[in-house]
Structure formats: C-alpha cells, structure tokens
C-alpha cells in the first residue's frame, strides 16, 4: 500500500515536470516565431528586402548585405523597435564602397604668338615634361611658356594621350589660338591670316584628328585692323546716317546700330567688326554719344580712338547744348575724351584756363584742357607714356596763347604727383595746382609735397590724398592664418556636405567652394590641410576611409576651380576627433564635417653650442651645493 502510494506520487510529479518542459518549449517557440515574424514584417514595410531574420531562443539574428552603412544601421534600429535591442545579433555585411570617381581631366592651351600658357588638370602618369619640351620651340624664351597644370593620381583615359598629342600638333600651326582638350573632345578656337589659310588648316586638322576624339573647330579669318578706330555720324536736314562705323564685337555693334536707328538712321546701316579698339567699353561710349547728338538735334559726331569730337549745328540753343553735353560727360567711360563745340560760342576770354589729368582705377589716363604750344604737347605725351604706360594715355589738349609762362613745368610736375597715386586727378590753373586721389602708400602726401616744393618752389598747391589699406601692396595679401580664419567666415553656419554615405559633394557645396576658391587664389601657396571627419556610427575603418575620400573630393574640387593645390594635403580622421556628443543626432551632425587648418612646420631641436654646454656644466661641488640649496628651499 505504501509502495503504491509512493509510486503514484512520484508518477504525478514526473508527469507535471514533463508537462512543464513541453509548455516551456512551446512558449519559447511561440516567442521565437512571433519575434522573427514581427521584425521581418517591419523590415518589409520599410522596403528592406535585402535582410533576413532568424531566431534561436531569445536571440534574434539579422543577416544579409546592406547597400550602405546607413541602411545597415536603419535595419538594426527597426529590429530594436520590435524586440529588446540586446537580443538583436548583427550579422549584416555592407557592400564595399565604390572607389572615388576620377576627376574630369582637361587642359586649355593658349597661344599668342610666342607666349604660351597651359592651364588644367592632367593625370599624374601623363608625361608633362615631354609636352613642355615639345612646345618650347614655339616660345622665344622659356619664361614665355607658363605651366599652370595640376595633376591627380588617377588612371589616364585611353584617348587622353592621342588627344593631347593632336592638340600640341595643332598649336604649332596656330600662332593665335585657344585649344580646349579633354579625353573625348578637342575644341580649337583660332584666327588665321587669310580665308585661304582657314581652308587649308581646317582640312589638315580634320585629317590629323584621332578617330575616337571629337574635333570642334571655330577658326576665323582675320578682321581688319583700324588705326585709329573710327566712327562718324551726321544728323542734318537730309536725316541721320552713319558715314563710318567700326565695332570690336557683336554686342558692341548691336549697341551702336540700335542707338543709330533710334536717332533716325536707316535700319540697313552697317558697322564693320574690326581689331584695334581703344577700350572694351567702345560700344557703350558710342551709343551714349549718338544719343546725345540726337538730343541736341543736328550736328556731327566723330570718334578717333578714344577722342570724341561733337559739333552741334549752328543755332542750337546754348542751354540745351550745355545740358546734354554735361550729361554725356558723366555717362562716358573715363578713358574717352570729349571735345564738344557749339558754333558761335561765348567770348573765348571767359573760358577757364586749366589743364586736367585723370587717372582711373584701371590705369587709364585722360589728359585734356589747355597747353601753351606744340612743344608742350610733345613733352606731356612723352612724359605721361613713361609714367603711366604708353597704352593707357588719351591726350585731348588744345593750344591757347593766353597761358602764363612756366605752364609746361607746372603741368609736368602735376603729372609726376598724380603718378604716385592709384587713381585720382590733377588740375592745373594759373594760380593753383590741385592733386587728389587714393593711394596705398601712407607716405604719398609727404612725398608729393616734397616733389612739388622741389620743382616749383613756393607754388600754390593743394593735396587731397586718401590712404586706403586695401591698395597697400604690403597689406593686400592676407597671412596664412588670416586666410584660414577667412575660410571659417565664408563658410559660417553653412557646411560642405555630401550625398549620404558617399564622397560625392552635393549641390549645396558648390557655392561654398566657389567662394573659398576665390579666397585661396588670393592667399597663394600656403600649407593647408583639408580634414575630413565623421561621426562614430558604423565601423571605424569604414569611417576613416570615408573621411579620407571626402577630404580628397574637396581637394579635387578646388583644383578644378584653378586653385594651386601643390602645398595642400587631404587627411581623413574618421571618428577620432569629435567636437560633439555622438549620442544625439545633433552631435553626430556636427561631427560630420570638413575643416581647413594650417600645416604647422615640424619643430627641430636647437643644437646646444659649445659655450652653452660649458655654462650648463656644474662646477666642482655644485651638485652638492645645489642639493643643499634644494633642501633649504623645500624647508
């Protein structure tokens, strides 16, 4: 009886235990299946089809190959929303990132007779020395060949060599040309001596062009050269007409013809495109003068280079003439000198006796007013060309016999003073000399005062000279430290950003890099380090690689903008140098950044001289004395 009872109890406990094991197993299986199904469902809803889910007990394994580190992190985060993140086992791989895209190699070859310039980006493997040696015979002097090429360490495209050889071949036959080269295209813009030369060269170049390289030609026969550059318009009882017209560009020709038609000239009026224009603002100056002649009513207008003669018709009201001419003088570019005549002028004795010289910020000099004789004209012209440059002088003075003795010396002294300024004006009258303007020399006023005193003695003169720091050649170029500081100012609250998980600059970075490149061109050859930094998400080695590629992408972008980058280096620091907490999205955003810093020179320890060694060596008993002294000081 006792045995039966014991057996019954034992069987009951064993059965209960078995049932518990079965129930626990079933419960665990239910938890596994529901967890795996829940994670799989949320991944599928988010479009993540590349990841699979397996469960083993309470552990959940997420496996597959993610397109990027960002996708991998998103999948794990979603899984952590369904089950405890500690239960999620990461078995995801990431697609190896593509190598950084090679830059677009291109070169511009510019030739003006014996002067040649090479600008652009070439592969490091390209033999630049062979190119230079091949072009050197085209230059009279080695200094006439400017090598401004940059290089990047990427494989050269297959057609790069043939394209460059063809471009060098073409340049030899084109004394005035611009040749733009890339791997699949060569664009040649050039001027030839005649129409026959144009046909011959076109045929020759088409035959020599490589098969896999597109050839584009823009070769023109020469325009006529006019000296002086002419224009004449007449408005009289018969109407308005252009009797002579030249323009330097299609834009200038359109400006001139439009102004002539508004003044009444025939729609079919012509204007010849020619070389020899005295100013790039020729079209504007002519259009303004034609408009003034039309406002006056009748008369003639003649341009001879930058000298303008406007003669109004007899009987033109003086007040209208004065108003129109005054407005025209204000509208004309500074290089042009206007001589306006109204027949039957007031008594000539009432006209002011003065000579005026103006120096524009672009270096153009206009000389107008009165001189005492032709010898003075020759002296002024020669002196001005020596002081300011022969190409920048426009002389429009006339002889007047009422001028006082010593007029020539006073005018030359005023020109000497004006030449010490960056821009300004000098006015000479019988009783006074006035010089005003801007300078980058803080001692200019003192120097001009000494100059005028030496040449003219007690002559009455007045100076109004303003020193401007931006014109000072010793202060115009910022220091390397100032350059780096100004880069920070330019970037400000903005960031140089990239497409997610890649080293491809996004569109918003273009404007920033354009502004930074303009500054760096001014700064010159400074030792600059472009640093790439990331946040701590993802694998450390991948972050370091990504930061290096991003820094290199910025370096290449600057080189593409014609910045000299030979003294720059790109360094990726990955997640090593955070500036914010990586536990928040704001902190991670701050840590993903590009920084510009100066490369500091390595410090070399100074070698100890023999004298310093002797002075530093302890004398007899000095060690003991020093020890006693130390104890004393400690106490």
Number of helices: 17
What is the total number of structural domains? 4
Alpha-beta content class: alpha/beta
The value of Rg in angstroms is 41 Å
CATH class of the largest domain: Alpha Beta
- Amount of helix: 25-40%
Strand arrangement in the largest pleated sheet: 6-5-4-7-8-9
Shape: elongated
> Would you count the extended β strands for me?
24
What can be said about the biggest beta sheet? 6 strands, mixed
Strand content: 25-35%
**What is the typical, i.e. mean, pLDDT?**
82
Question: What is the CA–CA distance across the termini?
Answer: 96 Å
Describe the structure.
The protein is an alpha/beta fold. It has 4 domains: 2-94, Histidine-containing Protein, Chain: A (2-Layer Sandwich); 106-220, hypothetical protein tt1634 (3-Layer(aba) Sandwich); 347-475, 3-Layer(aba) Sandwich (hypothetical protein tt1634); 480-598, OmpA-like domain (60s Ribosomal Protein L30, Chain: A, 2-Layer Sandwich). It is 39% helix and 25% strand. The chain has 17 helices and 24 strands. The strands form 5 sheets. Strands 6-5-4-7-8-9 form a 6-stranded mixed β-sheet, sandwiched between helices. It has a 6-stranded mixed β-sheet with strand order 12-11-10-13-14-15, with helices on one face. Strand 8, helix 5 and strand 9 (214-220) form a beta-alpha-beta unit. Helix 10 runs antiparallel to helix 11 (444-456). Residues 609-635 have low confidence and may be disordered.
């Amino acid at each position: 009886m006792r045995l039966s009872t014991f057996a019954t109890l034992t069987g009951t406990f064993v059965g209960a235990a078995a049932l518990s094991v079965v129930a626990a197993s079933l419960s665990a299986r239910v938890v596994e299946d529901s967890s795996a199904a829940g994670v799989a469902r949320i991944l599928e809803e988010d479009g993540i089809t590349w990841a699979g889910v397996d469960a083993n007990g309470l552990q959940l394994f997420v496996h597959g190959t993610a397109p990027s580190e960002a996708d991998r992190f998103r999948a794990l985060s979603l899984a952590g929303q369904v089950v405890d993140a500690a239960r999620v086992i990461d078995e995801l791989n990431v697609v190896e990132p593509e190598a950084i895209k090679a830059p677009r190699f291109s070169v511009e070859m510019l030739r003006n007779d014996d002067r040649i310039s090479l600008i652009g980006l070439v592969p490091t493997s390209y033999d630049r020395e062979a190119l230079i040696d091949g072009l050197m015979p085209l230059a009279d002097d080695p200094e006439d060949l400017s090598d401004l090429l940059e290089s990047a360490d990427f494989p050269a495209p297959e057609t790069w060599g043939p394209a460059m050889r063809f471009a060098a071949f073409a340049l030899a036959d084109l004394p005035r040309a611009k040749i733009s080269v890339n791997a699949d295209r060569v664009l040649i813009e050039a001027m030839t001596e005649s129409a026959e030369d144009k046909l011959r060269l076109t045929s020759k170049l088409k035959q020599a062009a490589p098969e896999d390289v597109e050839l584009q030609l823009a070769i023109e026969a020469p325009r006529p050269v006019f000296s002086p550059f002419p224009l004449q318009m007449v408005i009289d009882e018969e109407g308005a007409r252009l009797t002579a017209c030249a323009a330097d560009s299609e834009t200038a020709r359109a400006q001139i013809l439009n102004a002539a038609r508004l003044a009444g000239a025939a729609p079919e009026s012509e204007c010849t495109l020619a070389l020899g224009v005295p100013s790039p603002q020729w079209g504007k100056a002519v259009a303004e003068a034609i408009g003034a002649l039309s406002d006056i009513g009748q008369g003639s207008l003649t341009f001879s280079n930058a000298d303008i003669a406007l003669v109004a018709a007899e009987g033109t009201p003086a007040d209208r003439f004065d108003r129109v001419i005054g407005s025209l003088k204000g509208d004309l570019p500074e290089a042009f000198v206007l001589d306006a005549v109204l027949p039957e002028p007031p008594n000539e004795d009432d006209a002011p006796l003065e000579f005026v010289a103006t120096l524009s910020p672009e270096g153009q000099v206009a000389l107008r007013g009165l001189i005492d004789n032709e010898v003075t004209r020759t002296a002024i012209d020669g002196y001005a060309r020596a002081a300011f440059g022969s190409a920048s002088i426009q002389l429009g003075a006339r002889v007047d016999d009422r001028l006082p003795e010593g007029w020539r010396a006073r005018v030359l002294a005023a020109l000497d003073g004006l030449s010490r300024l960056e821009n300004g004006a000098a006015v000479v009258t019988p009783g006074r000399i006035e010089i005003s303007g801007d300078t980058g020399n803080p001692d200019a006023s003192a120097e001009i005062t000494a100059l005028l005193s030496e040449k003219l003695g007690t002559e009455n003169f007045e100076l109004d000279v303003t020193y401007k720091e931006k014109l000072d050649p010793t202060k115009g170029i910022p220091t390397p430290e100032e350059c780096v500081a100004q880069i920070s100012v330019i970037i400000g609250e903005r960031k140089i950003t990239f497409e997610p998980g890649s080293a491809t600059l996004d569109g918003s970075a273009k404007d920033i890099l354009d502004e930074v490149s303009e500054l760096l061109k001014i700064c010159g050859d400074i030792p600059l380090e472009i640093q790439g930094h990331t946040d701590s998400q993802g694998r450390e080695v991948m972050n370091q690689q990504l930061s290096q590629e991003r820094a290199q992408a910025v370096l290449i972008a600057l080189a593409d903008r014609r910045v000299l980058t030979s003294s720059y280096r790109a360094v990726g620091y990955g997640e090593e140098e955070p500036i914010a907490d990586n536990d928040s999205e704001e902190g991670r955003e701050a840590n993903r950044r590009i920084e510009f810093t100066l490369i500091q020179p390595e410090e070399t320890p100074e070698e100890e001289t023999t004298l310093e060694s002797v002075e530093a060596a302890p004398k007899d008993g000095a060690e003991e004395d020093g020890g006693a002294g130390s104890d004393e000081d400690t106490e």
